[in-house]
Amino acid sequence: MAYFDYASSSPVDRRVVEAMLPYMTDHFGNPSSVHSFGFKAREAIEEAREKVLQLIGGNGDLVFTSGATEANNLALIGYAMRNSKKGRHILISSVEHMSVINPAKYLQKQGFEVEFIPVNGFGEVKLDFIEEKLREDTILVSVQHANSEIGTIQPLDAVSEILEKSDAVLHVDATASVGKIDVSKLNAELITISSNDIYGPKGVGALFIAENVRIQPLILGGGQEKGLRSGTENVPAIVGFGKAAEITSKEWKDDSERIKKLRDRIIENALKIEDSYLNGHPERRLPNNVNIRFSYIEGESIVLSLDMNGIQASTGSACSSKTLQPSHVLMACGLKHEEAHGSLLLTLGKYNTDEDVDKLLEVLPGIIERLRSMSPLYRR
Amino acid sequence: MYSDKVFEHFQNPRNVGKIEDADGVGTVGNPVCGDLMTIYIKVKDGRIEDIKFQTFGCAAAIATSSMATEMAKGKTIEEALQITRDAVAEALGGLPKQKMHCSNLAADALRRAIVDYFRKNGNFDKIKELGLERELEKMEKGEMDDHGEYCEA
After folding, report:
1. In angstroms, rounded to a whole number, what is the distance separating the alpha carbons of residues A327 and A144?
2. Which of A29, A175, A351, A354 shows the smallest number of beta carbons within 10 Å?
3. ∠ CA(A192), CA(A194), CA(A199), 5° rounding?
4. Do A337 and B153 touch (CB under 8 A)?
5. Which of A300, A320, A376 has its CB closest to that of B38?
6. What distance in Å separates the CA atoms of residue A326 and residue B32, rounded to the nearest whole number?
7. Active-site residue, selected from the candidate residues A219, A304, A319, A331
8. For every one of its 153 residues, what pLDDT tens digit does chain B have, with 9 covering 90 and above?
9. In degrees to the nearest 10, what's the CA dihedral of B54, A346, A197, A162?
10. Which of A282, A266, A279 shows the shortest CA–CA distance to A348?
11. CA–CA separation, A287 and A262 (whole Å)
């Protein structure tokens, strides 16, 4: 097996599993309980919170959620609803994850004015658009740290600089970048991260909320997580998230350096296949992201062919999705439908080896050739 | 998501290629939607003697093209016209709902190849007799088939 779909799901680090286990069996107390079992669980949550805060270098609060999707929903809807008296204008980049785009569309229906920031061909937000559209009643700007599909890292320093002139807060979805590049210096009021992207368990994520930023909760109940996210905390998952954050803080640089070499070898060799093109930015991209489009063929066919050879990958092609619409990210970058259909997305992780890359590069040209030989669009 | 039969036809598609001196050629789909297929037929004594396909699309598109050509090979024109999208999907052990609309166009491509065969022979009476006037009209207008609700292109 050669797994290149880390952006979809990553295995949990064994050290993380070990840290979690006692909180399922021995330390199973409810963190809201006023007895020693509860105290033990509460202590573990606060310890995890510190570790995650340390990873993102934030001074403020951190709310544990069920994952990045909930954190993004909380950031957008929670902030907009709480601050609607200040203004109802929101800017979000057009290449955000659907867990940002769909809450933004929901806010549109609630009467907020949402504008989508266009991107250039590399997927970078157009800074002049933000500058031009920013107004007194703009309350929120949401621009991701890096794109999970095309790997492009956004010019967030420049975005922050533009926002200095306004009262709008910046939300950064750092789900794709955490553990791959430095997330400790993000100059944002709201930051989303998830556990599974740093080899922690699924079903847990967090929203960082800077001091003096107020949001409205989406889930009401017993008032857990400082009233911002009710529901008994998933203690083992939060402990695992904390452990994963601790490991990531220490190891991400070395891991990324090694992974980047594997990535570059894949890109260099895959681009030797004729009519293949790199999607996303050639330099300012995540060290673990390869997104290449092959003309005349369709992505799901490439992915299934790779799977038959023991290699797991992904695609931005419509045919692998439920709606059959091609990736909105690739389309926002200006690709035509038929170009977007032929994309292959490989996301690497810390368990990938040189042998995995050898295996991929050995079979990939043959797969592309085979599919092209069947395609009516390929006339060579 | 897919049946073993779909995987099998995707991995080992039958009748791939192009017939240079085809008696009829039918194309449906749209590269914008991610599915485009062309079927070529050779007809002898009213039977489909040879058939080949070229497909741009997902595994379902390739498998349905392969299965449809297998089903049509050796059949009379009238028998081949009985091959529907549902029949192709059934022969493959079923397809996901959205794939029925977007990837299972092979039966339509076959119908168009048959219309093209009659058109090339100037046999427009036969087109009328077999109720294929709508296909002919679409082909002459250069219209691609509708993929249904799952594809907006």
Report:
1. 16
2. A354
3. 150
4. yes
5. A376
6. 9
7. A319
8. 899 999 999 999 999 999 999 999 999 988 777 889 999 999 999 999 999 999 999 999 999 999 999 999 999 999 999 999 999 999 999 998 878 877 888 999 999 999 999 999 999 999 999 999 998 998 888 887 655 555 554
9. -100
10. A266
11. 9
How far apart are the C-alpha atoms of A136 and A376, rounded to whole Å? 54
Cβ distance B61 to A298 less than 8 Å, yes or no, reads yes
Q: How many Å apart are CA A272 and CA A97, to the nearest integer?
A: 31
Interface test with B, best of A294, A302, A319 (most B CBs within 10 A): A319
Which pTM was predicted? 0.93
Residue of chain A whose alpha carbon sits nearest to that of B66: A374
**Tokens 């061909």, residue located:** A121
Tell me how far CA of residue A101 lies from CA of A73, A108, B102, in angstroms.
9, 11, 26
Q: Which residue has the tokens 């769909």?
A: A102
Residue B139 has which token pair? Answer: 């082909």
**What was the ipTM of the complex prediction?**
0.90
Q: Which residue from B53, B54, B57, B63 is spatially nearest to B10, judged by alpha carbons? A: B63
Tell me the one-letter amino acid at A229: R
Beta-ladder partners of A192: A173, A207
Q: Pull the structure tokens for residue B9.
A: 């036809």
Chain A contact for B32, CB < 8 A? yes
